[in-house]
Design goal:
Oligomer: single chain
Number of strands: 18
Mean pLDDT: 96
Distance between the termini: 31 Å
Helix content: under 10%
Order of helices and strands: EEEEEEEEEEEEEEEEEE
Number of helices: 0
Radius of gyration: 16 Å
Structural class: mainly beta
Length: about 210
């Protein structure tokens, strides 16, 4: 929609309560990818509605507006992000109706433009990313002719094309991705109607997702 925001909000994960304003993005946008280390959070790409290449960052310990980090190697919105504590990886997306298979990466502790990493298995937008400290897994998405159940993974510390991981239990796009060091969860999404499916993978091994 047209009601894009600059608002950044924060919550304290260890307790319950309402969110607080943290600061503002450089410009109002949506359909970004977010990644983080223990110190910094980054958001990349997005729509204004024109797609962007910009990457913003914040320091978690200091409230305030985001600052310029650099640019993606390819301009796009509706992309996915995964990260280790060192490196952030951004995959797929869309620009001007053209779908992308690009993967690029940044070193989170420094600023600068993203560098080419490789490609995901198929062009698509609306894929979601989960990760542990070693591996990032991208799931789902759509390419204009249908939604996908594809899961592909990369080793975050290296570069190269994504490798087949398995399949989601339901083909869908724009899922809510959640992960810890062991498990990745893909929740909800569009298939092409809204779905309440949650399924999970064990990030350290390959195989199809299972119902959660």
């Amino acid at each position: 929609g047209s009601n894009r925001l600059t608002l950044i909000q924060s919550v304290k994960i260890s307790s319950t309560g309402n969110s607080n304003k943290f600061g503002d993005l450089l410009v109002a946008k949506n359909a970004m990818a977010g990644i983080s280390s223990k110190i910094r959070g980054l958001v990349a790409g997005g729509n204004t509605p024109t797609e962007l290449s910009t990457i913003d960052y914040i320091t978690f310990s200091t409230e305030g507006n985001s600052a310029d980090f650099g640019d993606l190697s390819v301009t796009r919105g509706t992309l996915a992000g995964t990260s280790s504590n060192t490196r952030g990886v951004f995959a797929a997306g869309e620009v001007s109706g053209t779908y992308s298979n690009v993967i690029d990466y940044v070193t989170i502790s420094t600023t600068g433009n993203a560098t080419d990493f490789g490609d995901v298995q198929a062009i698509r937008k609306g894929t979601s990313g989960v990760s542990n400290s070693t591996r990032g897994v991208f799931g789902g998405g759509e390419n204009g002719s249908g939604v996908s159940n594809i899961l592909g993974y990369v080793t975050i510390a290296t570069t190269g094309n994504a490798t087949d991981f398995g399949d989601l239990s339901v083909a869908r796009t724009f899922t809510g991705p959640l992960s810890n060091s062991v498990t990745g969860i893909f929740a909800g999404g569009t298939d092409p109607s809204a779905t309440n499916v949650m399924d999970f993978i064990t990030i350290g091994s390959t195989g199809n997702a299972s119902d959660f």
